[in-house]
Design goal:
heterodimer, A: 82 residues, alpha+beta, SH3 type barrels, 6-stranded antiparallel β-sheet, 3 helices, 6 strands, 37% strand, B: 647 residues, alpha/beta, 3-stranded antiparallel β-sheet
C-alpha cells in the first residue's frame, strides 16, 4: 500500500518548469548539478513553492521569498501538487 | 552544535571559542572533527563540537551521517552530547526548523541560536523568539554571529541546569505510537546510548508510511509555529510588490521603466549638481583670490593658485555629481529595484554569453571598476567571470565624469540635451562592452551554460541610513583621493608646466618650452590625427595614472593663460590653434569623449585585474587592448567627421 502511494506520488511529480502558474506545489526532490545551490537559497525538499511566471527565467515564491531562476535550474526541482 | 549548511555555525563557533579550537578526524572517516572550549558568564567550562552541516537527520552524505551518528550516540569514540546548540538561519527559518524538530525528537536539552537576525530584519521579517520558544519548548536566542550580537545572551542561556527536553511535538496514531514504544524498549534492552532516538529511527527505517506521516506531522507543526513566531513582510507589502513587479518585470513596460529611470538619473546628475558645482567653483576662485592677496607674485603663489587649487579644485568640483550618482545607485538597491534590473538584463546578457549575475558587477562598474571587478566573485562560472572582468572597465566609472562633464557642455546646451548625451555615453560604453563579451566569451574556451538564480526582495522604503552611509563613504573616498593622489599629481604637473623657466614673457612661449611643452611636442604627432593639441596630449598621458587628472592637467595648463577669472570651460571654448581656428570644436570634443569611454586609464584597476585573474597576461592585454581600441575609435570619429565636413 505504502509502495503504491509512493509510486503514485512519483508519477504525479513534475519539474518546476512544467508546473502551472499560480498553483501551489510541494518540492518532492531537488536533484542535479546545482541542487546544493538551490537548497541553500530555499528550494529544499518538502518546502512549498508557488510559481508566478513562465519563461526562460521564471519567478516563484518559496516561504514568502520571491526568487527568479532559469529554466535549467527549474528542471532540477521535482514538485507535486500541494 | 548542529545546523543546516550555511546557517553560520562556523562563524558562531569562532565567536564562542575564539582561539581555543582543536581540529581532528572522526574515527574511520575523513570528516574533520572541530571542537573548542569556552566559559559561560557563570564560570562553567564547555566543550563545543562543531558537527558537520546537515539538512536533516536522514543522511545523504558522509558528513551528514556523522552528525546523525553523534546525535543518536552511535559514533565511535564520541560521547553522547549533554546539550545541543542548534543554529538556525533566521532568513530561512521555516526550512531550518525541520532539523530542529528532528533534534527535539531525540530527547536532548536544546538551546537554539537564531542566527542572522540582522539580515532577517533587513529583509522585513519580524521574528518573535519568545513565541518560538513557547511553541518548541526550547529557548530561542536571537543572535548575529557575524557582528557578535547576542553572543553574551547565548552564553547565559547555556547554563546549568540545562533546559529540560521538550519531548516530541507531534503525536502519531495509536498504532505508530505503540511501534515507537516497543522499539524504544528494545533499544533500552540493547543498552543503546540514546534509546529514544534509536527506537524512533528504527521504526522510520523500515516503514515508509510511518516516515511520510512523521515528515508531514513535523512540517504541519512548523507551519503552525511559524504563523505566530515569524511575520513575513505583510501581505499588503507582498501584494504591492506583485503589482509593481507586474509593471517593472513586464517585457515591454519593464524596459520602458528601466530606460526612463536611467535617463532621469543622468538628467538629475546634471540638473541638481548645477548649483553646488557653481558654489564650489566660486569658492575656488575666492580662495585663489585670497591666496594671491596674501602671497606675493612668484613661483610659490603659482604653485598654490595654479597648481594645487586649480588641480585639486578642478576635480573636487565634481563631488556633487559623484554624490548624486552614488545616491541613485544606493537608492535603487535599497528599494529592491536593482534585482529587477538584473532580472530584466539577464535576457540581454544571455545573448552575449553572460547571465544576469554579470549585471550587478557591471552596474557597480559605473561607480568604480574596482568594486565591480571584486563583485564578479559571485559569478559561479569561471569563463563568464573572466569575460565580465575583461569588459567591465567599459562601463563608465565616476572618474570619467569630470572629463565628460567638462567636454559635454562644449558640444551640447541645456540640461536635457546634456543629460541625454551623458546617457548616450554610458549606453555606448555598455553596448560595446556587451558586444566585446559576445566576441570574447567563445574564445575563452568551452563552458557550462550559465544558470540564473536570484532573490527578488520585496519593494520597501529606502533604508536612508544605509544609503547615506554608502554615499558618505564614497564621497569621503573621493575627497581623500583628491587630497592625496590628485594633489601629488597636481604638484608634479604644475612643476612640469612651469619648469624649465623661459626668458620670454609670453605665456605661450613659456608653456612650449616647459617639460610639459616638450612632452607635448613628442606626443603631438600621435594625438594630432585625433584633432588634439599638445596640452590635451600631455593631459591624456598624465591621465593614465588616474582619469580625473585629465581635468586637473587641463586646468593647470590653462590656469597660466591671460584670461584669469574665467571659468575653465569658457577658456577652452575661446582657445584656438595658432592659425586662429577654434581648438575645442564639437568634433574634437567627441573624439576626446570617445577616447575616454574606451581607454583603461586606471593603474589600480590593472592591479586588481591581475589579482582577480591571477595573471599579468590578462591584465596587460586588457590595458593594451583597450588603449589601442580607444585610440582607433577616437581616430575614426575625428577623421570620419572631418571627411563629412564637420569641424
Amino acid at each position: 500500500m505504502a509502495k503504491l502511494a509512493t509510486d503514485l506520488e512519483l508519477d504525479s511529480a513534475l519539474t518546476l518548469s512544467q508546473a502551472a502558474i499560480g498553483c501551489d506545489f510541494q518540492i518532492r526532490q531537488v536533484e542535479g548539478p546545482a541542487c546544493s545551490q538551490l537548497r541553500d537559497i530555499g528550494f529544499c525538499e518538502q518546502m512549498r513553492v508557488k510559481k508566478l511566471t513562465n519563461g526562460r527565467n521564471m519567478l516563484c515564491t518559496v516561504c514568502g521569498t520571491r526568487l527568479a531562476l532559469s529554466k535549467d535550474l527549474a528542471d532540477q526541482i521535482q514538485v507535486v501538487p500541494a | 552544535m548542529v545546523g543546516n549548511p550555511n546557517a553560520g555555525k562556523t562563524t558562531l563557533f569562532n565567536a564562542l571559542t575564539g582561539q581555543n579550537q582543536k581540529v581532528g578526524n572522526y574515527t574511520g572517516a575523513t570528516v574533520s572533527r572541530k571542537s573548542g572550549t569556552f566559559f559561560t558568564p557563570h564560570g562553567h567550562k564547555f566543550e563545543l563540537i562543531d558537527l558537520p552541516g546537515a539538512y536533516s537527520l536522514d543522511p545523504n552524505s558522509p558528513d551528514e551521517e556523522i552528525t546523525r551518528n553523534v546525535l543518536i550516540g552511535d559514533q565511535e569514540d564520541e560521547e553522547t552530547p549533554n546539550l545541543i546548540l542548534c543554529v538556525l538561519d533566521a532568513t530561512h527559518l521555516e526550512r531550518h526548523l525541520y532539523l530542529l524538530i528532528q533534534v527535539i525528537d531525540l530527547g536532548y536539552p536544546i538551546v537554539v541560536a537564531l542566527n542572522k537576525t540582522d539580515s532577517a530584519e533587513s529583509q522585513g521579517l519580524r521574528l518573535d523568539p519568545t513565541a518560538l520558544s513557547e511553541r518548541f519548548g526550547v529557548p530561542f536566542v536571537a543572535i548575529s554571529a557575524m557582528t557578535e550580537r547576542g553572543i553574551t545572551q547565548l552564553k547565559q542561556a547555556l547554563r546549568h541546569p540545562f533546559p529540560s527536553p521538550p519531548g516530541r511535538l507531534w503525536k502519531g496514531p495509536a498504532e505508530l505510537e505503540e511501534a515507537i514504544k516497543k522499539s524504544t524498549k528494545l533499544a533500552e534492552t540493547n543498552r543503546e546510548n540514546n534509546p529514544a532516538a534509536s527506537g524512533l529511527m528504527a521504526v522510520v527505517k523500515d516503514n515508509p508510511e510511518a516516515k511520510e506521516f512523521i515528515q508531514k506531522a513535523r512540517f504541519e507543526y512548523i507551519h503552525r509555529a511559524v504563523e505566530v513566531g515569524l511575520q513575513r513582510p505583510n501581505e499588503e507589502l507582498l501584494a504591492l510588490t506583485d503589482r509593481i513587479d507586474a509593471q517593472t518585470l513586464h517585457p515591454i513596460k519593464g524596459w520602458c521603466i528601466f530606460t526612463a529611470l536611467m535617463i532621469t538619473v543622468f538628467w538629475s546628475i546634471f540638473k541638481f549638481a548645477e548649483m553646488p558645482m557653481g558654489l564650489i567653483e566660486e569658492g575656488q576662485e575666492t580662495l585663489q583670490g585670497w591666496v594671491r592677496d596674501f602671497i606675493g607674485e612668484g613661483d610659490f603663489q603659482s604653485l598654490i593658485v595654479d597648481g594645487i587649487i586649480a588641480g585639486v579644485g578642478g576635480v573636487l568640483v565634481f563631488l556633487p555629481q559623484i554624490i548624486l550618482l552614488f545616491f541613485f545607485i544606493s537608492l535603487l538597491e535599497s528599494t529592491g529595484y536593482m534585482a529587477r534590473a538584473a532580472y530584466l538584463m539577464d535576457g540581454v546578457m544571455n545573448k552575449v554569453g553572460l547571465s544576469g549575475k554579470s549585471f550587478l558587477p557591471l552596474l557597480s562598474g559605473y561607480a568604480c571598476a574596482i568594486p565591480g571587478i571584486m563583485a564578479t566573485r559571485t559569478i559561479p562560472n569561471n569563463k563568464e567571470r573572466l569575460a565580465t572582468i575583461l569588459i567591465l572597465p567599459w562601463t563608465s566609472c565616476t572618474a570619467r565624469l569630470p572629463v565628460y562633464t567638462l567636454i559635454i557642455p562644449l558640444i551640447f546646451v541645456g540640461a536635457l540635451q546634456q543629460g541625454l548625451a551623458l546617457f548616450g555615453i554610458y549606453a555606448l560604453g555598455t553596448i560595446t562592452a556587451l558586444l566585446a563579451a559576445k566576441i570574447l566569451k567563445p574564445r575563452l574556451g568551452e563552458t557550462e551554460p550559465s544558470q540564473f538564480l536570484l532573490e527578488l526582495p520585496p519593494y520597501q522604503n529606502p533604508q536612508w541610513r544605509h544609503v547615506l552611509r554608502q554615499v558618505s563613504e564614497r564621497a569621503f573616498a573621493f575627497i581623500k583621493k583628491a587630497g592625496t593622489v590628485i594633489l601629488g599629481l597636481s604638484i608634479i604637473l604644475w612643476f612640469l608646466e612651469t619648469y624649465p623657466k623661459s626668458d620670454s614673457d609670453d605665456p605661450i612661449v613659456q608653456q612650449s618650452e616647459s617639460f610639459n611643452g616638450q612632452i607635448g611636442e613628442i606626443i603631438e604627432p600621435v594625438v594630432a590625427p585625433l584633432g588634439w593639441d599638445t596640452r590635451m596630449g600631455t593631459a591624456m598621458i598624465a591621465s593614465f595614472a588616474a582619469r580625473e587628472v585629465f581635468r586637473s592637467s587641463i586646468a593647470i595648463s590653462y590656469a597660466t593663460d591671460e584670461e584669469d577669472g574665467k571659468e575653465l570651460r569658457d577658456k577652452l571654448s575661446a582657445s584656438t590653434h595658432s592659425d586662429g581656428t577654434a581648438l575645442y570644436t564639437p568634433l574634437v570634443g567627441l573624439s576626446v569623449i570617445v577616447f575616454f569611454i574606451y581607454a583603461l586609464q586606471c593603474l589600480p584597476t590593472t592591479v586588481i585585474v591581475r589579482r582577480e585573474t591571477g595573471s599579468w597576461k590578462w591584465a596587460l592585454s586588457q590595458l593594451a587592448g583597450m588603449t589601442i581600441f580607444a585610440y582607433l575609435a577616437a581616430l575614426l570619429v575625428y577623421q570620419t567627421g572631418k571627411l563629412l565636413g564637420y569641424s
